[in-house]
Amino acid sequence: MDEQRVLCVLGCRSTALGGPFPAAQGYLTCRPCAARLRQTLLDIPDRYATILGPEALEPYRQDLGRRPTGFASNAPVSLHILALRDPRSTWREPGDPHNALNVLWWWATQIRELRGHTPPQHGPTVHSECGTLLFEWDWITRQALVTGLARDLRETAAQLAHAMPGGEPPPHCVGTCTTILSDGIRCKHPLYLPKTGKKITCGGCGHTYNAADLITLNLTQRRSGT
Question: Would you list the domain boundaries of the chain?
Answer without folding.
Answer: 1-168, 171-226
